[in-house]
């Protein structure tokens, strides 16, 4: 949605960050301002955002900027790590009672959150694990709610227990337990009516059920599209009824799902599943890292960070050497090739250019370069260099017309393309000499990230 | 079920001694009391909304100097109501402008000014209700669980009470028991009901319904549709098709498309509105579940980014818990000091 503009905004902001080596307070603040906007756009609760930003700021100021990243990206890296920390670092499972004991699961949540569908999805999932499930219809208010559960139960081929809509929910739940014991079910899933967390009578209905029946897992179902209210909802359900886990529904939509972060922050209860569609099989394990990624909405920057990390093993001395050569104008075709390979590891030039903040510097626009050089063209360039002899690669001045002809033939390109490339190479070399600042813009002081021309 | 709820409420809270004797006259009485209950629920509902916003605003309008912190705090409160960054900023900018124009110096004088700005921002597209005058088809759309079916039931009663021959069409052929659910609402409202079989093509249901409406001389046809997430291409295409069929098969009818948004929805509401607008030319928005703590700030966000008027708000689960949207009342309610003491955010 606001994705392109966000990336654009980030680029402009990051361009102005000046940290060398260590993150300065000013740079961290500037970058975090953008992060704050992104999180609010994703519906993370305002207070949660404020608190989160404060803690990241504390952690980030003074940190070393990792090789291959600029200060802005370094801040994002820390933000991402902190978000994953907050979300819980691993996926969670439902807990079952030992042996033959019955595990009782109770669904709860606001109206329209997706409880009934989710109850049936869970039953299907546990059935696959060899459990014998009983779905219990305790929504005595919404028209046809029990019928809906009944239809879903039969689609999932699991048993269903209901007593119509004229008994109290807690009575139905208690009767369901007796039924389960008699019929050898080891999982009981109680579907309850949607309710507002401020409706005390309705909230009491849930605690009544819990008093009558030993509920092991109370699961709160929350719509992934929920806005700022998610904290109040989760907090109140947790305080009044007590929840053990959360399920985020409708995650197959395009909501960024900031509610997940808010809920985790106020309840510290694990998110167990995410609903990924209307089909009764569309229930997936929750992955904190993916969720953090989605909420932050900076997937491209995160990919770059990840790749930079992978690239850390590349010999740093060679980098410095290249940089030195570049600055002295001694950069040759061999270096070019090497840089190009490094580039490729990071995902191709055009994708990287798009991610690079600071491309607007020195009169060069990302768009210009990108239009000039696409990945296909790069592979032809590679072919050209590979068709050169070792001597030619080290000494571009050797390239006379007959050598160029041979190279063109070897690379399977037109002679004109060879000429153009060589000319461009010389020009770029000159430009790089004039623009040492650009290197800083790309990779900070220890910049291992460089343009191959 | 629903009736039981209402009865209970009446018994417990509302019936004073003088009223007890009236209990015999059941139908009339319930209708009367439901009205009372409705009003109380509405006030209560909006009070909840009010509490939360005013809870923040209250401390703001003390007679101190206007500074950036003051504006920041207003912005924070607006964002906390789901108004979104853009709409909030726009409101603040406008407020600043007027503060300058009118030489306002103290924060307490800003109260009315802010109300004014907020009301105006909600009135960019004032609601109209052409289907109250013309023969109409009203298509009700939205994401899963937003409150479409309930809204259809509520709206059917409203139009029937205006003396219109009203019909409800069940075009949700997908969700389990959706038809049964709507059938209950049609009975409650006491209007005609056209149903379908589960799995039948919803477009063909709508086609049949249009023929029936013409034959029966129906004034208002209200079509419930299956919940669909706005990023599902095929489902949005299906909606487009339904819209086409309505226009083609009932060319004399005025067509209203109401998008139902859950009041607790965050910024995704804008994305929803945009996609539904594309697929079926949405002409009005209904914001539901405002009897909860959700503040419905998306009303500002929607007004700010798309030109669709908000036409109704849902303030409860009973059949008369649907209110026409009034920007001034809405904003007033957000500001007026609540009579209730309970702090919902505690
Ligand atoms: N508190 C409250 N609940 C509401 C309101 N409107 C609808 N609901 C409840 O929200 C839940 C979902 O409403 P439905 O009308 O079934 O929603 P829907 O959009 O038709 O749902 P699907 O057809 O499943 O996509 C039900 O439990 C309704 O009673 C409202 O204004 N306030
Ligand atoms: Mg429905």
Descriptive notes:
The complex is a heterodimer of chains A (453) and B (346). Chain A has 453 residues and is an alpha/beta fold. Chain A is built from 21 helices and eight strands. In chain A, α2 (25-41) crosses α4 and α7 runs parallel beside α8. The longest helix of chain A is centred in the last third of the chain and has 20 residues, at 415-434. The radius of gyration of chain A is 29 Å and the shape is elongated. Chain B is an alpha/beta fold and 346 residues long. In chain B, 52% of the residues lie in helices and 12% in strands. Chain B has an eight-stranded mixed beta sheet, sandwiched between helices. In chain B, α1 (2-14) packs across α3 (26-57), α5 (85-101) crosses α6 and α7 packs parallel to α8. Chain B starts with a helix and ends in an 11-residue tail after the last helix. Residues 1-43, 45-55 and 337-346 of chain B have low confidence and may be disordered. At the A-B interface, α2, α6 and α9 of A face α4, α8 and α11 of B. The complex binds guanosine-5'-triphosphate and magnesium ion. Guanosine-5'-triphosphate sits between chains B (142, 144-150, 172, 175, 178, 227, 288-289, 291-292, 314-317, 321) and A (111-112, 142, 194, 196).
- In round numbers, the mean pLDDT of chain B is 83
The description of the largest β-sheet of chain B is: 8 strands, mixed
Count of domains of chain A: 3
Strand residues, percent of chain B:
5-15%
Trace the largest sheet of chain A across and list its strands: 3-2-4-1-5-6-7-8
List the ions, cofactors and other small molecules found in this model.
guanosine-5'-triphosphate, magnesium ion
The helix content of chain A, as a percent range, equals: 55-70%
Distance linking N and C termini of chain B:
31 Å
CATH class of the largest domain in chain A: Alpha Beta
Mean pLDDT of chain A: 82
Identify the quaternary structure here: heterodimer
Q: Helix coverage percent of residues of chain B?
A: 40-55%
Strand order, biggest sheet of chain B?
3-2-4-1-5-6-7-8
* Radius of gyration of CA atoms of chain B, rounded to a whole number: 22 Å
Q: Could you give the order of the helices and strands of chain A?
A: HHHHEHEHEHEHEHEHEEHHHHHHHHHHH
Number of helices of chain B: 13
Q: State the CATH superfamily name of the largest domain in chain A.
A: P-loop containing nucleotide triphosphate hydrolases
Are there runs of chain B of 5+ residues with pLDDT below 50, and where? 1-43, 45-55, 337-346
């Amino acid at each position: 949605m606001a994705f392109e503009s966000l990336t654009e905004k980030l680029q402009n902001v990051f361009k102005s960050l000046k940290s060398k080596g260590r993150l300065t307070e000013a740079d961290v603040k500037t970058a975090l301002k953008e992060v704050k906007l992104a999180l609010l756009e994703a519906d993370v609760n305002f207070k949660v955002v404020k608190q989160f930003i404060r803690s990241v700021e504390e952690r980030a100021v003074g940190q070393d900027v990792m090789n291959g990243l600029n200060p802005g990206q370094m801040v994002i890296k820390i933000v991402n790590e902190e978000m994953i920390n907050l979300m819980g670092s691993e996926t969670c499972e439902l807990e079952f009672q030992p042996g033959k004991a019955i595990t009782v699961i109770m669904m709860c949540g606001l109206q329209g959150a997706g409880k009934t569908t989710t109850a049936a999805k869970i039953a299907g999932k546990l059935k696959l694990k060899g459990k014998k499930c009983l779905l219990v219809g305790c929504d005595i208010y919404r028209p046809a709610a029990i019928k809906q559960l009944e239809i879903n139960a039969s689609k999932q081929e699991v048993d269903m227990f209901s007593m119509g809509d004229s008994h109290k929910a807690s009575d139905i739940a208690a009767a369901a337990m007796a039924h389960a014991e008699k019929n050898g079910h080891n999982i009981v899933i109680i579907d309850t009516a949607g309710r507002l967390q401020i409706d005390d009578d309705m909230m009491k209905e849930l605690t009544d059920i819990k008093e009558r029946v030993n509920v092991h897992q109370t699961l709160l179902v929350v719509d992934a599209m929920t806005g700022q209210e998610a904290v109040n909802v989760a907090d109140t359900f947790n305080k009044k009824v007590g929840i053990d886990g959360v399920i985020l529904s409708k995650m197959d939509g395009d909501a960024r799902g900031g509610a997940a972060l808010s809920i985790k922050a106020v309840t510290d209860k694990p998110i167990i599943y995410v609903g990924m569609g209307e089909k009764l099989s569309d229930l997936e394990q929750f992955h904190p890292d993916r969720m953090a990624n989605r909420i932050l909405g900076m997937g491209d920057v995160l990919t770059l960070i990840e790749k930079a990390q992978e690239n850390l093993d590349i010999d740093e001395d060679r980098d410095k050497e290249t940089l030195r050569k570049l600055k002295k104008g001694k950069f040759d075709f061999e270096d070019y090739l090497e840089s190009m390979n490094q580039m490729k590891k990071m995902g191709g030039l055009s994708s990287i250019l798009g991610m690079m903040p600071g491309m607007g510097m020195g009169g060069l626009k990302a768009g210009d370069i990108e239009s000039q050089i696409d990945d296909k063209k790069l592979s032809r360039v590679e072919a050209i260099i590979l068709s050169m002899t070792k001597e030619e690669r080290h000494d571009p001045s050797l390239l006379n017309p007959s050598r160029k002809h041979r190279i063109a033939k070897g690379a399977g390109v037109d002679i004109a393309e060879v000429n153009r490339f060589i000319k461009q190479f010389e020009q770029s070399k000159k430009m790089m000499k004039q623009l040492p600042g650009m290197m800083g813009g790309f990779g900070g002081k220890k910049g291992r990230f460089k343009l191959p021309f | 079920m629903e009736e039981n709820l209402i009865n209970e409420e009446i018994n417990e809270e509302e019936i004073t001694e003088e009223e007890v004797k009236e209990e015999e006259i059941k139908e009339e009485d319930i209708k009367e009391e439901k009205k009372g209950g409705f009003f109380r629920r509405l006030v209560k509902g909006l009070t909840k909304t009010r509490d939360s916003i005013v809870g923040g605003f209250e401390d703001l309008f003390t007679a101190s100097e206007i500074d950036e912190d003051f504006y920041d705090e207003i912005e924070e409160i607006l964002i906390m109501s789901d108004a979104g960054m853009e709409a909030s900023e726009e409101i603040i900018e406008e407020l600043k402008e007027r503060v300058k124009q009118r030489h306002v110096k103290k924060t307490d004088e800003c109260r009315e000014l802010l109300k004014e700005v907020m009301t105006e921002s909600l009135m960019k597209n004032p609601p109209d209700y052409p289907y109250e005058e013309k023969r109409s088809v009203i298509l009700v759309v939205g994401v899963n669980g937003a409150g479409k079916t309930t809204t259809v039931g509520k709206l059917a009663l409203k139009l029937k009470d205006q003396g219109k021959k009203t019909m409800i069409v069940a075009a949700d052929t997908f969700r389990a028991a959706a038809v049964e659910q709507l059938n209950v609402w049609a009975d409650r409202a006491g209007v005609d009901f056209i149903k379908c079989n589960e799995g039948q093509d919803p477009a063909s249901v709508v086609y049949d319904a249009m023929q029936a409406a013409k034959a029966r001389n129906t004034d208002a046809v209200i079509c419930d549709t299956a919940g669909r997430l706005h990023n599902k291409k095929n489902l949005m295409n299906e909606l487009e098709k339904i819209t086409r069929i309505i226009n083609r098969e009932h060319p004399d009818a005025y067509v209203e498309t109401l998008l139902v948004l859950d009041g607790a929805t965050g910024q995704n509401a804008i994305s929803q509105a945009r996609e539904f607008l594309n697929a079926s030319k949405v002409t009005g928005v209904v914001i539901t579940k405002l009897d909860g703590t959700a503040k419905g700030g998306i009303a500002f966000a929607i007004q700010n980014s798309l030109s669709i008027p908000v036409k109704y708000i849902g303030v409860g689960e009973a059949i008369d818990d649907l209110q026409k949207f009034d920007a001034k009342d809405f904003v007033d309610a957000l500001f007026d000091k609540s009579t209730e003491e309970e702090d919902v955010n505690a």
